[in-house]
Amino acid sequence: MTDDRLPGDEAAFIAAARSNDPAPFTLVTERYRRELQVHCYRMLANYEDAQDMTQETFLRAWNKRESFKGHAALRTWLYRIATNACLDFLEKRNDRTPVPAELPGAGWEVRYLQPYPDRMLPEDPQDSVVARETIELAFIVAVQHLPPRQRAVFIVRDVLGWPASKAADTLELTVPSVTSALQRARVTMREQLPGHRLDWRSPATHELSDDERGVVRSYMDAHERNDLDALTALLRDDLRFAMLPGSGALIVTARDAVDGWVSGGLFRRGHDDWRCIATTVNRMPAAALYLRTPGDPEHRLYTIAVLRIVDGKIAELTGFDAAGTPWLGLPATL
């Protein structure tokens, strides 16, 4: 196939590679940045690491630009580089696997888990890239229980929807080994995901419902009024709660959850002046909680609470300690 018969991006990339000019190279590859970053995030469960590995992907692509001949789609070639960058990263780190939680009954902790800001998702996404079912926190945590190469197989096959032959070529495996790895990965995912969320290949959903938005408003209002009864009423009695970095996921009653927050100092004098901002991360409703302590003229970012809402109540609450860490493009103070 000659260059003038290649699809647009592939032909443009080869022309950029031959010119040795980084400007047209960047112009062609930059459009893939956001979806590659989501891919790296699924592999690594950490937003900052995903940013680093996406940048590493483009650096490797530039260094290997002359090896691209257009036999595979440019997008596939970049995904291969991104996947290998993540696998190399994981091979060098011994702190990127789930560990037993310190609290009895809390299961496992993914201490490096970070939320993913929706504003950084692809603006014109393919459903397979940002399907809500495959970017929610519970799904991302479950993926971390897979060995790295099995994780890669699962993501390209069951999340991106690639055929076994394409996955095998991308990961430099045989088709039978890809099929075997995928079968093992599906078993682990079903063991790790809550029982009501086993179909990660269901039709994609993107937008929050009016019900979800209403619960977030009520959750923020209860915080700002220090209304513990209203807060308790918003929580399911089988609440799945985790605070990161820290304890693993616990199943607690609504009253026990609120009592635990109070015994930890929240809503008491000095920790009772709240302001909140509604946001979304991982295609999930979330609230950024800002606390003003005595003597401080400003409310400072304290916690990001990511919520999963079922039938008008909060079924899962994952809190991220955000003190001193202005994540997700949120203001550090109000």
TrEMBL record:
Which keywords has UniProt assigned to this entry? Sigma factor, Transcription, Transcription regulation
Q: Which Pfam families match?
A: Sigma70_r2, Sigma70_r4_2
Q: Which Gene3D superfamilies match?
A: 1.10.1740.10, 3.10.450.50, Winged helix-like DNA-binding domain superfamily/Winged helix DNA-binding domain
RNA polymerase sigma factor 70 region 4 type domain residues are 139-188
The cross-references to SUPFAM superfamilies, in alphabetical order and at most eight, read: NTF2-like (SSF54427), Sigma2 domain of RNA polymerase sigma factors (SSF88946), Sigma3 and sigma4 domains of RNA polymerase sigma factors (SSF88659)
Q: Where is the RNA polymerase sigma-70 region domain?
A: 30-94
Reading the lineage from the top rank, the first entry is Bacteria
Subunit structure, interactors included:
Interacts transiently with the RNA polymerase catalytic core formed by RpoA, RpoB, RpoC and RpoZ (2 alpha, 1 beta, 1 beta' and 1 omega subunit) to form the RNA polymerase holoenzyme that can initiate transcription.
Q: Which family does it belong to?
A: Belongs to the sigma-70 factor family. ECF subfamily.
Q: What is the designated name of this protein? A: RNA polymerase subunit sigma-70
Q: Which species is the source of this protein?
A: Streptosporangium longisporum
